[in-house]
Amino acid sequence: MGTSKFAALKRVRQERDEDPVQPAGPTIPSNQKRTVPSNQSVKVTPVISAERPLFEKKPRGRPPGKRSHEAYTQITAYIRKETQQEVKLALLQRRDERDVSELIEELLTHWLKSNT
Known about the structure:
single chain, mainly alpha
């Protein structure tokens, strides 16, 4: 039986694990510049802050909408398809941030104020 196809990876891992970590050298005052000769290598260890995670967890899915909000209720109203399409188009052309339901809410609120 031949060698394992992962033998080379195992060997590299073992060599890396056997490589001793270089101890930190003497502290150098911040006003002095430290240089490393070109024939020597420097091992850099990244510092990970415990204050903030590397990756921020984003909430999954869409944010809750009107359907799941207590203050809203769903209604059914019949309007002509043409009217609905024209309203949507007008809101988009005006770059209005409102959707059709917000426009209906505004119109009904205005109607209530003027009729009470």
